[in-house]
Amino acid sequence: MSAAQVASLSPEAVTIEERSPFQIVMTRFKRHRLAMVSLVVMTVIFIITILAPVIAPFEVQELSVDKYFVEWGTVDEETGRVHYLGTDQIGRDYFSRLIYAGRISLTIAIVSVIISELVGIIVGAVSGFFGGWVDAILMRFVEFMLTIPLLPLLLIISSMLLRNEELIPIPEPVLNFMGNLLLLTPRDARNAVLIILILAGFGWLNAAQLMRGMVLSLREQTFVEASRSLGASNYRIIMRDMIPNAMAPIIVDASLGLAGYIVTEAALAFLGFGIQDPIPTWGNMLSASQEFMLDRPWLPLVPGLPIFLCSLAFNYIGDGLRDALDPRLKL
Amino acid sequence: MTAFFIRRIFQMILVVLVSAVATYALLNLAPGGPLAGLRQQQQSARFQITEEDIARIRAYFELDLFLPYRFTRWLVGVPTGPMVIGGNEYFSDLVVGCRKPIESDILNEDTGEYEIVITGCKEDVFMKDLVGRRSSRGILLGDFGLSWRILRDRPVSDLLLSRLSKTLQLIGLSTLLSLLIGVPLGVYSAVRQYSKFDYIFTSLAFMGSAMPTFFFGLLMIILFSLVPKEAGWPYVPSGLSESVRDYTIPIIGAVEAGSFKDRSLHILLPTAVLTIVNISFYSRFIRASMLEVMRQDYVRTARAKGLAERVVILKHALRNALIPFITIVVFTLPGLFSGALITESIFAWPGMGRLYLLALGDFDYPVAMAIFFILAILTVIATLMRDFLYTIADPRIRLS
Fold first, then answer.
1. Beta bridge partners of B247
2. In degrees rounded to 5, what are phi and psi of residue B289?
3. Which residues on chain B are in Cβ contact (under 8 Å) with A258?
4. Could you tell me which chain A residue has the CA closest to the CA of B355?
5. Does the distance separating the beta carbons of B379 and A152 come in below 8 Å?
6. Which residues of B are less than 8 Å from A272 in CB distance?
7. CA of B207 to nearest chain A CA: how many angstroms apart?
8. Nearest Cα residue to B50 out of B58, B61, B42
9. What is the pLDDT of residues A195-244, one digit of tens each?
């Protein structure tokens, strides 16, 4: 092609449309079909749980006397409301409890993920950036925490904390905020806040290790050097150069973490060391259904399927995000 | 290398000690415990429980000692009395606890409620009072103390031993099966990457690893026990490790309670659950590791010099792919002991994991602490073993 021919080409013909990094990631994410399906499923579940007070025909604690284990689709004669999934052993509407439980389980998982990733990012960034004894102390501590058998320890901690809830001081505004979010009284919300603290307390370790690894490799990059030579402060380098560039593994970790938290929270409740009965969660509904499944074998499916669905969906989304952000990531 | 392991062993001892202190404090500082019910009885007119009774019971559970002394007595069995050096007793008047605490109702300004607060001590416990008291020789020396609730006053070690074999059966069998099935599946899937088999297998394994164990266990009970039993088909009994009464299963016939047939039928479902969960975990790991290795130069070299594909895969690729797998396999060691908490709980399998849950729920802290302590030690040993085996399997790894 001669110079004249090149000059005669219109700009549109030689340049490709500019795309932001976000668009590139989105195109690649859309290629992962199961991840897209999962995203849609999770969006639907989210909307349902956010609109819980509007959608649920019954109140969470509302008892229908003498209507224990009614069939699904039974209509309440006085008010005309429908028990879409029937009622439980003391006459509470299953469907309403299920979506309120979803709201509680999902919120706990999301808040735990946010806290643990934030703590992980800060600890990992500080540790990797400053190195030396700060790094040594922080990473020894992380290693130390990772060698303790997790589930048995979680069981000890939650059984102790939940029995002596009042002993742990939690600021009133936090309780009120969580109460509003979960549609619980501040007193009941204390239970949920404790579970979040327990989950996030052991969840940030992985994120911290990931973040530290990323920061260590970023520290040697030329753009960080350039920033420093332009006189950027440590704070600025960490906030503007390190953290945005290290987000890929953190985002994937957060997505997989959501799946993990939903399952762990449900497991604690299932074993009787999590959130207790009058407050509905998928875990304690499943645990309660165990007692009656001899006569009603389909009963555990009702709270069990959403747990499985969420866990699977967040795993697929994490998988899709990894492929879209950085296929070489090992998480 | 040696320096690394010496440093590592010290670090591990610290891990075990700190986690023991933390969990011991957590369990013992919390109110409640074995005295919880006594307070109500104290009020009732029929069973008058005097202050003296309470003091005696507190002494029996060692609740009258201060926490640090209680902890060292639990850990290594000291102090058991004043120190005797050259015929002289030292520290015999040291206050080590409180026999009768003064409890007073104090108005809490914030809540407006009265709370029982310990404000002082009527009668101290001195070091010399510890002489002649029953004490364990210390958990480090193999004495786990006595159970508080589950098997009252029987040694904790008896309880643990009675449960150990059940857990070993379950976890041993399922680990063995999942290794035997999981590793070949992972290898085959990696060798035939992008084939139909690989596609189906990876999606199944993905679902398996996302499936919560507790839900999977319930599903298995429903599918293989409840529904077929209802329909009159052959079914698999679920719950416990053997049945109490004789029973008959269609086609299989009469089963005598406690017989070998009975026990193997009962172990079937929990083993299946654990095995399937482990397979999806192991084989995903092996597959990823194999894919990584198959891209290496030495595998290409092995092919280039004309070795049979079988030899390339089994000798050159698989051996290297198994190195990272060590990480996972050594951690079955603590698993062998703790059992699978959740699986044992669903199937009412009388193993360690269920004992642990029972002990926590029932305030039987000596049992819970013993299990947690052994578990922490085993986990730490597994971590050490992992590092050690790594250096043996892969001489390129240098530890420092």
1. B255
2. -65, -40
3. none
4. A152
5. no
6. 357, 361
7. 7
8. B42
9. 898 899 888 998 998 899 888 888 888 888 898 899 888 888 888 888 88
Give Cβ neighbours of residue A240 (< 8 Å, ≥ 6 apart).
Answer: A227, A232
CA–CA separation, B219 vs B215, rounded Å?
6
| Distance (Å, whole) CA A128 – CA A138 | 10
CB B119 within 8 A of CB B332: no
Complex ipTM: 0.83
**How far is the C-alpha of A265 from the C-alpha of A261, rounded, in Å?**
6
With a CB cutoff of 8 Å and minimum separation 6, the contacts of B43 are none
To the nearest whole Å, the CA of B122 is away from the closest chain A CA by: 26
Count of A–B CB contacts within 8 Å? 109
Tell me the backbone φ, ψ of residue A205, rounded to 5 degrees. -60, -45
Q: How far apart are CA B142 and CA B159, in angstroms?
A: 14
Tell me how crowded residue A269 is: count the other CB atoms within 10 A of its CB: 30
Give me A161's structure tokens: 């904390």
Which amino acid makes up residue B215?
F
- Name the pTM for this structure: 0.84
**Whole-number Å distance between alpha carbons of B140 and B78:** 12
Q: Which residues pair with B95 in a beta bridge?
A: B126
Cβ of A308 within 8 Å of Cβ of B206? The answer is no
Taking an 8 Å cut-off on Cβ atoms, the answer to whether B206 and A315 are in contact is yes
Tens-place pLDDT, residues B93-121: 777 777 777 776 666 666 666 666 666 77
**Cα B31 to Cα A63, B108, B223, B258, B370, distances in angstroms:** 34, 18, 43, 42, 20
Q: Which residues contact A80 (CB under 8 A, 6 or more apart)?
A: none
CB B327, CB B289: distance < 8 Å: no
Q: How far apart are the C-alpha atoms of B195 and B177, rounded to whole Å?
A: 25
Pick the closest to residue A256 from A102, A117, A125 (CA basis): A117
CB A211 within 8 A of CB A250: yes
Q: Which residue of A has its CA nearest to B228?
A: A297
Distance from CA of A254 to the nearest CA of B (A): 15
